[in-house]
Write a structure and sequence with these properties.
By secondary structure, the chain is of the alpha/beta class. It has 5 helices and 12 strands.
């Protein structure tokens, strides 16, 4: 569909995402949270990995009000991610990229404890492939045997749900995609 490179497409999608007004942004983010909360995969999960919104990624902080869940957030350590339990009010740091991370001293989560991964994405396509920021952190993690069986949900706004993305051999499709208008399950992505 696109005769654009990942870099060009990433730039375009981020620009479009950042052009959303603050009111529209919060409204769309809240609808994404509602779509997630109404999904059995989310309802049944006890431990969920999420992210702190960066560059106007959908804001999932509304989900943190669900105190029945244990939440994990990432820290970038060299070329990989470590996941730490975090609840509102606990300490955090800001890394070299300007991304908020949980304090390194908070409890680290192991893959066997995790039931669901909410994956920040610049765009996703109908096959479940995701366009990230280009660092490969999630692709590396999700290719590891201990992580690749945990259900994943790409989180994007409707405009970033595209028919097809340019993909490379290392790209791993996600199980589902959630936007403000729908949650598309893996059975539809197949």
């Amino acid at each position: 569909m696109f005769n654009q490179t990942k870099t060009e497409l990433r730039r375009l999608m981020i620009k479009q995402r950042r052009s959303i007004t603050s009111g529209e942004y919060q409204e769309k983010s809240d609808r994404i949270c509602q779509n997630l909360q109404n999904n059995p995969l989310f309802e049944q999960a006890k431990t969920i990995l999420s992210y702190f919104s960066f560059r106007q990624e959908p804001d999932l902080s509304l989900l943190l009000n669900n105190t029945d869940k244990k939440w994990g957030f990432p820290r970038c350590i060299e070329q990989s991610l470590t996941w730490h339990c975090w609840q509102p009010g606990e300490t955090y740091d800001t890394n070299n990229y300007g991304i908020i991370e949980p304090d390194a001293n908070l409890i680290q989560l192991q893959p066997f404890e995790v039931d669901l991964i909410l994956v920040p994405s610049v765009a996703c396509d109908y096959q479940g492939y995701r366009l990230g920021y280009g660092g490969g952190f999630y692709d590396r993690m999700l290719s590891l045997p201990e992580w690749n069986l945990i259900p994943t949900v790409g989180i994007i706004f409707d405009f970033a749900y595209l028919p097809q993305l340019p993909i490379d051999s290392w790209d791993k499709p996600l199980n589902s995609v959630c936007t403000e208008s729908k949650l598309i399950l893996s059975s539809i992505l197949d």
